[in-house]
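[recover] target loaded
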């Protein structure tokens, strides 16, 4: 019987080791680094956010330290909770019978570490652990300590290995990412077909899960109940439901429970900042957090320090160097944000948080508009890029808000972001505008500018929708005598004519836009863009007129501070020069235009078109289909 029990025990250990090896996929480099640290330091701490695999990595490293004739003693967090001093007593009890105890063998007096004390997940007793570890290291020169925690102890001779989420992007050779490899290994036979489409969906799931190993393993285990397609949709809408009936660690039975274990470590003020900041959908700075989190017992000056404390527990991730010259920026992982949003709802603060987020986004849009209109277009685009997750969140929320004023506010915000949509984000802008327009009365003042912008974004991909939108707003623009809107309607009609292959009609429409538009306009394109489009439309039939139009576009006042319009005019002139046989002049103009590093940020389509033209001029290849100036997407 004893022999059979020993065989069963050996088999269980082998199974556990196999599961551990599977879970360490993507952590091979970190394991090697940890073993190296253990060979040269007496105190090593593995830190990282919840569910990143600290305990597993520490456990494997500790077990693989046994061949070096170390005795491994483990104390885990359930034993360390309870009355004051329980952790100290648990460590003392665990060390009984080792070379460090008073009745231990004399071998403990040999040189070199003989006992490895593995203290797993000591965050609930972090402060007590500092003193206990310091005393034991001082009194026992042969002791070595390995710790897993969300933050270091802070002792002077401590070596720290910081774990982060697994990479979710594919490797350079095209092989699956470490996160995807962990998912596939955990799924095993539950995922039989592993074609490129399947692997791509696995990559998407891992990216949604922020590369967190615990979430990835729990998600892969769900393939016994859900298809891969259904699983991808489920994790997109939430992660707290992910669970396992047979977890390695009790606190890892679900994502909800794992995050909740960290919640118990936070002070009431940290919890309030956590829940209030969870309304921010993407990376955010201190200023946004102060606006969202201040109130009640939280004063504005307290918020930055509380953010730092949350980051030390892995609940926030730094998006930039926290010690750099800029404002610290943070990102809350999806599982942590989901947990915080539920607490925010339970506290009855969700509506207030939503309004504050909307106010923050309105400030961002106002500042970005100001930057764009006053010659700082690159900064405007970068500002919106930094806040695009929150901007998208308020637009999505408005689509579910029954209040008409919420729809109007979101529609106005989407319209004011016209420069963002036409710099490479036309599909998303068109989708939001069409959905919001369907909820807004046609006679509302916000509807006409939004319909014009939607028509502009749809001019190339969906001319029929664009024409329908323009027909809806043209009578009102005529009755109101709104020359700016009439010019923009004519411009979009001209773009549709070009798309449909009628450059003569397009030229007439662009000329109308040039005549109608005032000298100074905001909130959309001006005369320089219309003249560039006119030059493009006439380049084949009237090359001299096209050349004059392009020169006139570049001569428009204020163009020096409007790189987006300037790049379109410069592209039109270089293209006309090329088609008129002036290749050298076209090369010079195109090369000067793309030499400005900021042009690729605020005018990506024109920048790419100029680079394509340079390639044609350099290689002598056939001219590709030219890009239409002013046509978004």
């Amino acid at each position: 019987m004893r022999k059979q029990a020993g065989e069963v025990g050996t088999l269980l250990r082998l199974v556990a080791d196999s599961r551990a090896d599977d879970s360490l996929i993507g952590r091979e480099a970190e394991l090697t680094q940890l073993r190296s640290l253990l060979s040269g330091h007496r105190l090593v701490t593995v830190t990282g956010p919840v569910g990143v695999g600290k305990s597993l990595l520490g456990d494997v490293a500790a077990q693989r330290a046994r061949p070096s004739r170390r005795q491994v003693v483990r104390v885990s967090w359930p034993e360390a909770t309870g009355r004051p001093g329980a952790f100290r007593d648990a460590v003392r009890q665990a060390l009984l019978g080792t070379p460090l105890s008073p009745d231990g063998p004399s071998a403990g007096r040999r040189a070199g570490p003989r006992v490895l004390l593995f203290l797993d997940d000591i965050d609930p007793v972090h402060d007590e652990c500092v003193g206990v570890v310091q005393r034991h290291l001082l009194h026992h020169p042969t002791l070595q300590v390995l710790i897993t925690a969300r933050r270091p102890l802070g002792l002077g001779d401590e070596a720290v290995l910081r774990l982060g989420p697994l990479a979710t992007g594919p490797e350079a050779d095209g092989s699956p990412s470490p996160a995807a490899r962990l998912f596939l290994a955990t799924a095993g036979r539950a995922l039989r077909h592993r074609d490129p489409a399947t692997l791509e969906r696995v990559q998407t799931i891992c990216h949604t899960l922020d590369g967190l190993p615990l979430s990835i393993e729990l998600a892969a285990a769900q393939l016994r109940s859900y298809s891969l397609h259904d699983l991808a949709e489920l994790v997109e809408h939430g992660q707290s439901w992910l669970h396992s009936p047979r977890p390695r660690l009790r606190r890892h039975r679900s994502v909800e429970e794992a995050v909740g274990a960290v919640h118990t470590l936070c002070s009431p003020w940290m919890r309030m900042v956590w829940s209030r900041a969870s309304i921010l959908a993407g990376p955010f700075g201190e200023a946004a957090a102060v606006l969202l989190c201040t109130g009640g017992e939280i004063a504005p000056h307290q918020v930055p320090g509380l953010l730092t404390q949350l980051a030390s527990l892995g609940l926030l991730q730094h998006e930039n160097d926290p010690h750099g010259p800029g404002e610290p920026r943070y990102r809350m992982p999806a599982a942590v944000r989901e947990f915080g949003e539920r607490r925010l709802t339970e506290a009855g603060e969700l509506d207030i948080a939503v309004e504050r987020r909307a106010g923050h986004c309105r400030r961002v849009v106002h500042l970005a508009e100001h930057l764009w209109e006053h010659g700082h277009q690159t900064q405007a685009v970068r500002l919106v890029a930094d806040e695009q997750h929150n901007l998208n969140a308020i637009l999505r929320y408005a689509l579910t808000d029954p209040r008409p004023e919420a729809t109007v506010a979101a529609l106005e915000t989407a319209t004011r972001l016209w420069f963002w949509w036409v710099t490479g984000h036309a599909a998303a802008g068109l989708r939001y505008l069409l959905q919001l327009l369907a909820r807004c009365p046609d006679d509302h003042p916000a509807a006409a500018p939004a319909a014009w912008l939607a028509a502009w974004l749809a001019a190339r991909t969906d001319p029929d929708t664009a024409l329908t939108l323009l027909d809806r707003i043209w009578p009102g623009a005529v009755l109101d005598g709104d020359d700016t809107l009439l010019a923009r309607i004519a411009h979009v009609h001209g773009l549709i004519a070009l798309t449909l292959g009628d450059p003569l009609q397009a030229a007439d429409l662009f000329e109308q836009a040039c005549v109608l538009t005032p000298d100074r306009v905001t909130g959309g394109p001006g005369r320089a863009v219309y003249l560039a489009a006119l030059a493009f439309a006439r380049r084949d039939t009237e090359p001299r007129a096209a050349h004059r139009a392009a020169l006139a576009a570049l001569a428009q006042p204020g163009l020096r501070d409007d790189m987006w319009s300037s790049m379109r005019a410069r592209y039109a002139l270089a293209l006309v020069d090329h088609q008129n046989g002036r290749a050298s002049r076209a090369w010079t103009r195109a090369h000067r235009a793309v030499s400005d590093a900021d042009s690729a940020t605020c005018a990506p389509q024109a920048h790419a078109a100029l680079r394509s033209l340079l390639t044609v001029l350099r290689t002598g290849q056939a001219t590709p289909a030219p890009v239409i100036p002013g046509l978004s997407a």
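[recover] notes: The radius of gyration is 31 Å.
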